[in-house]
Amino acid sequence: MSTTAHVVFSGVLILTVLFIYSLVRQRVLKSKYALLWSLVAIALLPIAAVPSIVESVSDMLGIETPSNTILLAAVSLLFATTVHLTYELSRVEARTQDLAEEFALLRARLDQPEPAPSD
Question: Is 0.85 surpassed by the pTM of this model?
Answer without folding.
Answer: no
